[in-house]
Structure formats: structure tokens, C-alpha cells
Design a protein that fits this description.
The N terminus is likely disordered. With 451 residues, the protein is an alpha/beta fold. A hairpin with a 2-residue loop joins strand 11 and strand 12. The protein has 11 helices and 16 strands.
């Protein structure tokens, strides 16, 4: 019966303290992009998975991966990595230039519960058809759709052959919609992860024609999402940078079942009916920040993930960490959200020595983290038995959620340290036994019963 519960579960995201740096989307020069023929080598049919992956493990893996897909920096997805994805991930977003049209259908045949997505840019259009993230189809007449500065000059793009497109252009929105639809059909993708929405696009500067402030960008984002959304045709999963921001007006009630008090009158609610989930690049702990988000945003982050999961939407929670304690806080927070296993996934964003802060966009890094920390990513908690709730503990309060095989506590407070008396020995992720746990600010603990 427990396995059946897990299987049924399987059938079935802010204002930032610092701007994100240029992430891996703008690293590869156009001349290094691989062709479809080159990508074909290595795309093989993986072995069939006959049950949900890690059925007792509520931590589901997935995310957006633009690096580390093959044997070299710019190599296409290898056969070994394709098999690994099928065996470990529930949601995967890859650039079309790194795969062939046969890859996603093969993944779905092997693991029908996987959600394959294409990684595309929402603001950039490249003259090179095979450039990473490109929806393709550039024509000189499209210069009329490009983003302009106050002097009506086109905003220069950092990549050769790239153009910043104007979100206020209805022609661009219609073109993007049609191209995204064509790409998803060609590659057998369930939808697209759309990067570089105006709210999170720090590359274009501030002096833009028609966009004098953040509210203009927010409004343009909403109009674009509404025009680009294609219900029943493909999933639109936008990068959610800035969605925690106040909308600046009262928002309409979301559809029934999607109510979330902390998201009311924020952009999350403003955009709710025009998206099919979200890629939360900086969930709980942005990779461009030294510290986690403050407590005032903790419940917003959890509610965004929770709402998506309850609605069967895709939610990619990409959270950064330096230490095992940081990772346990991220994972414990993730476990506070509702889980319809398979669509709410965790993307590890480790802040590694001598590595860029966005190293977590590498599939090789994901594999390394899972191999090095199996006790964290494969913790056998089983199904959740209750909703998250606040309980009084020594020194204050903590969030708690009980699972079939253990319990999770989180202290998102910015300054307060609390202690939890467990009433009996419980096993920590490092294998030690504890009768009491101390939770400093921004910490969590995942505990397993000993019998």
C-alpha cells in the first residue's frame, strides 16, 4: 500500500538583495555551438524504468542544465548522461542544440513520468539558428521588434549575432509563441523553460525606451506571458526572478484551489493564470548571494512551490549552499511544500571552490553532488502524513512536518536559535543519533525514525 501511495503521488515559485550575475546562458560563443548531426552521436535509448524512481524518497531531482552534458564543454548529451537523467530526474530542461529530436521521446518511453522541457530565451533572438537557447528564425525585418534605448538605438547584445527583443512588441510575442510551439513538437518536449524575462534581465541596462522603471518591466512581462501562453499546447515555465515583488495593485483572485495568502497582491498572483509553473533560479538561497533570503520571504518561497505542486505544475527549486548544513536547510524547506511527486523538483546549486557561482547548471555537477551526498538526496522519508505547521520549541517556534519514516524541522528566523526535544533517539543525515537538535537561524534538520 505504501508503494501504491508513492506511485499515485508520482502521477501527478521576490525581491532580490543582489542582482544575479551573467549565468551560463551567455558563455558559449556562437562558433562553438554543435550541429544536430554532432548531437546525434551518443543519443541512445536508455533502459526502461518500470516504477517511480526512488519511490520512498520525496526529494525529486531535476532542473535546467546547459553545461556538463557530454565528454567535453560543448559536447551534446551523451548516452550515459541520458540514461542517468532517466534514472534520477523527474523534470529536465535542455537546449535543443545539445540533443536530437529522438532524445526526449526515448526518455519518455523509458520513464513515462518524466517532464522533458526545452531551455529557450524569451528576450534574445540569434542570427545563428543553432545558438544555445535560440527559438530561431531571425530575419532582418525583425530589427523593428528589437529593444531600444531612449535615443531609439538598438540595445547591444553581448553575443555576436544576438539581438535583445522588445517584450512590448506584439509581433515578437506572436513569433515567439509560434516558434516555441514548433520546437516542442519537433523535439517531443512537454514545454519550455523561458529565461531572461524583463524582471530578471540585468544585461540590458536601465535607459530603455518605454520602460522607465520596474513597474513597466513587470507590466510588460505580464502582457508577454499572456500572449505567449499556450494552454493545452505546451507548458510555459518562466524564470521567476522578481515574481516575489509586490504587484503595485490589488491582484485578481487566482483560480480555485490556487489561493496562497503570502502571494496575494504580488506578481506571483498577477501572473498565475498565464504560466504553467516556474523555474525559481534563486529559491530560498540565490546562487548570487552569500546568504539565504530573509525570513520575510521564506513563506513566500514555500507557498509558491506549494501552489505549483498542488496544481500539478512544474516548479524547479534551484537553491544554493556552501556546507552540508546549508544543503539540509534547503532540502528541509523543500520538504515543507506539498509533493505531487514528479513536478516539484530540487536543483542543487553548490557554491564550490574555484567554480563559478552558477556551477549548478552543469549536469556533471549534479551527478557529482548526488554521488557524494546520497544520504541527503535519497533520504527515505516516505510519504508526508501532515501539512507543515508551526510548533512551540525551546527558545521560540519552528516549522514541522511529519513523514511516514521521519520528521522535518525548519527554523527560518534571521536571528533566533531554537532547540527541539525529540523525545527519543532519531537518526540524522550524517548517521548520528540525536535526542535533541539545535537549530540556528536559517537552518533545518531531516530526521529518520530508528525503528
Amino acid at each position: 500500500m505504501i508503494w501504491l501511495q508513492s506511485f499515485l503521488c508520482s502521477i501527478g515559485a521576490f525581491i532580490f538583495l543582489a542582482a544575479p550575475p551573467s549565468h551560463s546562458g551567455h558563455k558559449a560563443p556562437a562558433g562553438k555551438q554543435k550541429t544536430q548531426k554532432q548531437a546525434a552521436a551518443g543519443a541512445q535509448k536508455p533502459s526502461v524504468i518500470v516504477q517511480p524512481i526512488r519511490p520512498e524518497c520525496p526529494i525529486r531531482l531535476g532542473g535546467v542544465y546547459t553545461e556538463g552534458l557530454g565528454d567535453s564543454a560543448d559536447a551534446p548529451l551523451s548516452a550515459d548522461n541520458q540514461r542517468w537523467i532517466v534514472e534520477h530526474c523527474d523534470v529536465i530542461a535542455l537546449d535543443a542544440g545539445r540533443i536530437t529530436p529522438a532524445v526526449f521521446p526515448a526518455m519518455v518511453r523509458a520513464y513515462p513520468l518524466i517532464t522533458p522541457l526545452l531551455y529557450v530565451y524569451a528576450s534574445s533572438l540569434y542570427e545563428q539558428p543553432d545558438h544555445r537557447g535560440n527559438v530561431g528564425g531571425w530575419e532582418p525585418r525583425m530589427r523593428a521588434w528589437t529593444l531600444r534605448d531612449a535615443q531609439n538605438n538598438e540595445i547591444p547584445h553581448p553575443d555576436a549575432g544576438g539581438h535583445w527583443m522588445d517584450f512590448g512588441s506584439t509581433q515578437w510575442a506572436a513569433f515567439w509563441h509560434d516558434r516555441a510551439l514548433a520546437l516542442t513538437r519537433r523535439y517531443g518536449a512537454a514545454g519550455v523553460v523561458a529565461a531572461e524575462l524583463p524582471l530578471g534581465n540585468t544585461f540590458v541596462g536601465e535607459r530603455l525606451a518605454g520602460y522607465k522603471d520596474a513597474s513597466d518591466r513587470a507590466a510588460a512581462t505580464g502582457r508577454w506571458l499572456r500572449a505567449a501562453h499556450a494552454p493545452g499546447k505546451f507548458l510555459l515555465i518562466p524564470s521567476a526572478i522578481g515574481f516575489d515583488s509586490p504587484a503595485g495593485h490589488a491582484t485578481l483572485p487566482p483560480p480555485a484551489g490556487m489561493e496562497a495568502p503570502q502571494l496575494r497582491d504580488r506578481l506571483w498572483d498577477d501572473y498565475a493564470t498565464w504560466i504553467d509553473g516556474a523555474w525559481a533560479e534563486g529559491w530560498i538561497h540565490p546562487y548570487w548571494s552569500e546568504t539565504p533570503l530573509p525570513e520575510s520571504f521564506w513563506e513566500i518561497e514555500v507557498e509558491a512551490a506549494d501552489r505549483a505542486a498542488r496544481s500539478g505544475q512544474v516548479f524547479i527549486a534551484a537553491a544554493a549552499y556552501r556546507t552540508d548544513a546549508d544543503l539540509e536547510y534547503d532540502l528541509a524547506t523543500y520538504l515543507m511544500a506539498y509533493h505531487r511527486q514528479g513536478r516539484l523538483v530540487f536543483q542543487p546549486m553548490p557554491l564550490l571552490p574555484s567554480q563559478p557561482p552558477d556551477a549548478g547548471f552543469s549536469l556533471a555537477v549534479l551527478r557529482q553532488q548526488v554521488a557524494e551526498k546520497p544520504g541527503y538526496f535519497n533520504v527515505p522519508l516516505g510519504v508526508a502524513l501532515q501539512e507543515r505547521h508551526i510548533i512551540p520549541v525551546t527558545g521560540g517556534v519552528a516549522w514541522r512536518r511529519g513523514f511516514q519514516n521521519g520528521v522535518v524541522y525548519v527554523n527560518p528566523d534571521d536571528t533566533q536559535t531554537v532547540s527541539v526535544q525529540l523525545g527519543g533517539a532519531m537518526k540524522r543525515l550524517d548517521g548520528s543519533l540525536a535526542h535533541e537538535v539545535t537549530l540556528p537561524p536559517h537552518s533545518g534538520v531531516i530526521l529518520l525514525y530508528t525503528n
